[in-house]
What does this fold into?
Amino acid sequence: MSSTINFGIDLGTTNSLIGKYTNGQVEVFRNPSGMKETLPSVVAFRKERILVGDKAKEYLERDANNVFGGFKRKMGTDENYFVPNIEETKSPISFSSIVLQELKNFVYTGEVPESVVITIPASFNTIQSNATKEAGYLAGFKEVVLLQEPIAASLAFANKLKEEEIVGNRLVYDLGGGTFDVAIVKIDHEELKVVDHEGDNFLGGMDFDQLIVTKIIVPYLESQFQINDLIPKMQSASGIYNKLYYKLLYKAEEAKIMLSSKESVEIEFEFEDQKDESHEIIFTIHRHQFEDIIKEKIIYSIEFIKNLLERNQLSSKDINEVVLVGGSTYIPFIRNLIQEQLEINVNCSVDPTTAVVIGAAYYAGSKTKQLPTNVEENSKIKTVSPSVENLKVKMAYQKNSREKEEYFTAIIENTKPGMTYRILRDDGGYDSGTKPLKERISEMLILLPHTLNLFILKIYNSQQQQIAVEIPEIAIVQGNFSIYGQPLPDDICLEVDDVENTTTKLELIFEKNAILPIKKTITKTLSRSISKSSEEQLLINILEGSRYAAPTSNLSIGMIAIRGRDLHTNLIKGSDIELCIEISESRDIIVIAYINMIDQEFKQVFSPSARSVNVTRLKEEIDYLSRTTNKQLDIMIKKDQFEEAAVLKRITEDLRNIQMDLSQISEDDTTDMKYQIDDKKRKLATLIDKGTGDERLIMLKEDYYQMKSHCFHFVENEGFESHRLRFDNIVANESDWINDKGGKNFIKRKTEELNKLSWEIKRRNLNYVIYVYTHYALKSEEEYSNPERFKMLKERGDQALQRKNIDEILSLVSQMHELLIDKGKDEHMKGTGLS
Amino acid sequence: MSNLSLIKIANIVFETEKKVLTQESFSPLIRNVNRMKTVIEEGGLLVINPSGEAFSETRTDIEATLINPTSENQKICDVIKPIIYEIQEGKPVLIQKGIVIVE
It folds into this structure.
C-alpha cells in the first residue's frame, strides 16, 4: 500500500473531478457513464431515489425544490434545505458528501481511497474549510487534506517549469461554467501562498451561451420573420419557442467551443414562424461577433484583477504570468485580452478544465498519509469492504427478454436501517440512483437492444460505504439472443476475386455461432466490366463452411448470377455494388444486390430446402480444380512423393468423371444431377484441401514461417509504421488458422501477402533491385518469348543501372518478367466479378 | 481513422439522416446514408436514435432538457445528438450520451 495520499479531488461549484498521482503522472478518472471527466456538482432527490451529476442537472431548473446545485457557496453556513420529496432537511455538507461519494465510483481500478486531498476556494474561511472536511469524512474518507484551488492550479503549471522559473507571483484566473475567481499566488523556494483573491459567483461560460442566443440569433430571427419580443417567448416556460430556446442554447455552446479554433461556424436548426411555416435556418456566426458580445464581461473580469493588484500594491511587472483555469479560458479572445490589458504573459500549457484536480493530485502524491495505524489496519477488513452479518439477497428476473425494459425484484434478508442500494448497467447506460434498501426491492431495468445486458446491484451501509456481500450479476439477454435464437453452425462467407492470385477467396460475412436472425450490408467493388446483353455474369455467391477453406470446398447456400442480358446498361469495373445479406431464424437467406451506377436492384430469397446450383459456375470450378490438381500431381511425381501422388491421381480421375457428367446437362436442367455433381465436387475439393497428406501442410507452414521471419526482418529494419501495421494485420489471429486442417489455401495466401509486403519494402533498396535485375538479365535468351525485345530491355537496363534509377530498373524487370515463357504462375480461376 | 473522428462523423451522419427523412425529395439519399451508417458500425460504434422512446430518470444514456417535468408518460421528442456506444472487446461501452429534449 502506498504511503502517500495520491488521490486529489476538485470539488467545484459547477463541476467536480477526481484524479490520482502515480509515478510522476496524474490520471484524471472518467465517469463510467458517458466517459466524461467532469461530474456536475448537482444532487436531485426524486421520489425514492437520489440522482447525482448529469441526471440531477436535468431537473435543476424544473424541480428547484428537490434539486440542488451551487451548494458549495453555502458551505459552512447554517443554511439548510428542506427537501419536499423525502421530507427531510439536508445541509450543504451532506450534498457535498454525496458528490464526493459519486466521484469514488469513477475510480475504475477497484481501489477505495481512504485519504484524499480536496480543493477549496481561496475565499473559504475556517468554518467553510472544516465543513468541506466534514463532507469528506461523511463520504467515507478517513483522512482529508485541504488545498486552495489557486495553489492547486499553480502546482499543475509549476510542475512543467524549471526550478528557477517557478519562484515569483502568479495570477490564477479561473473562469468556469458559472463562476469566476482570481487569486494572486506567491511561490518562493519553500511555499506556495495565496496572497489575495476576488471573485463573482455569477459569471461564466453559460452567460456566453445565452448571449449568443439573445444577442446574435434572436435579432436575426426577429428581423427575418418579423417577430417581436422573441426572447420572452423563448424563455417563458409556456412560451411557444421554449423548446427551441433550449435547443439553441446547446447549439450556442457547441458554436462557442468551435469558435475557439475557427474564424466562423455554421449552426443549423429548424424554425417555425408565426404562420406555422417551417424554415431550415443555416446561420453563420463569426468569431468577431462572438468577441463583441462577450467583451463587456471579460473587461469586467479584468477590472477585478486590476483592483486586486492595486489593493496589494502590485503592478503587472510584479506578476510572472497569468495562469488560466476553467473551461471558458479556452476562448482565445480572453487569453489575448488579458495579455493585452495587463501586459502579463499568459500561460495556457495545462488543460484548464483539469488543472485544479491535476494540481491536487500532484500535491497528494507528495503528501504522506497520516492515518492512525489501527484505522489503516481495520480498514482492510471493515472500512474498505464492510460486511453485514447474514445479509442475504435473493433475486428474481427474466433472463431473456424481447421487451425494452424488464422487471427485477429481490428479497433482502437482515437489512439494517439507513442501508441503501443502487443498480448500474455495466455499459454506463442505466443507473437506478441511490434508493433506500427494504426487505423487498423492485426496479424496471432498461435494456440495450440485441445484446447481453449486465447489471450490478450494490448495497451500502448507513455511512454510504459499499457492503461486501456476494451478489451475482444480473444478466438479461435482450432481443436476438432470446431462447428462440439459434447459432450459426458454420461461418457464412462471400466468394470474392483474389485478383493478384487470379483465383477467388472467401470473405467472412457472419461468424460461426452468431445468433439468428442476422443482417449485414457490405459494399464491394466490381473487378471487371460487364457489357449489357452479353453472357458474362457477375456472381454473388454466399457459402457456408470454414472461412479458411478454399471457396470450392464450401457449400454454396445462395447465389445470384447477374448476367449481361439482365442489365439496362454496361457495368464498369471499379463501380460499387451494395450487398445486403440477411439470414432469418428459419435460415432463409435473403440477398439484395444494389448496383449504384445503374440504380438497379436484384433480390433473391434462398431457402435451405430449395438449393440452387449455377451450372456455368460449377463447370468453371471443376475445370479449375482439375487443372490445379494435375499441376500439383506433376510436382509430387517430380519430388518422388508417390504415396501422396496416388491419392491425388484418384482425385483427378474422379474430377474427370464429374466433368464428363456435367458436360451432359444444360444450365436449366431440371433433374437433381447438378446437385449430385456439386456435392461430389465439394467432397473432392475438401479432399484436395485437407486430404493430400500432412506433409503438404507442413511444407506450407514452413514456407509461411520462413516468409514471416524474412518479412519481419525487413519491417523492423527498413519498414515504416504503416508496414508494421500491415504485418500485424496479416499475422493476426495466426493460432486460429495455422492449425486449421482445411486452411492450406489460407496459409498460402498469407505467405503471399507477406511476400508482397517484403517486396514493397525491398523495392526501395537499390542493392536489392540490382540483385533482382541481375537475376532476370542473366537468364538465357531461350527462356523469353521474344529474345530480341529481351536484348533491347537488357541494354536499357544496363544504362539504367548506371543512373541508379530504381523506378526505371523495376519497370524493365517487370517487362522482362512478362516475356518469360514459364512465369511459374498458378492456374487461374474465372472470378466472380467482385473484389 | 481515430475514434474521435469516427464519433464526429457518426454525429454528422445522424444529422444528415434526420434531414433526409423529413423531405421526400431526399429519399434517394437514404441508401447512401444507410451505407455510411454501416461503415460507422463496422468501425465499432453502435449509434442509437432514442427519438420517441419513453423518458426515465434512470436512463443515464441521455442528457435531457425537460420541457414539462410534471407530465406523465414523458417521451423523447427531439434528439440533438444520438447515443453512441463503442464496442470494446465485444462489449458496449457508453461514450456519448444522447442530447435530447423531453416533453
In short: Chain B has one domain: 3-102. Chain B has a mean pLDDT of 89. DSSP finds two helices and six strands in chain B. Chain B touches chain A at residues 15, 19, 31, 34-35, 38, 53, 56-61, 63-67, 69, 77-78, 80, 83, 85, 91-97, 99, 101, 103 (CB under 8 Å).
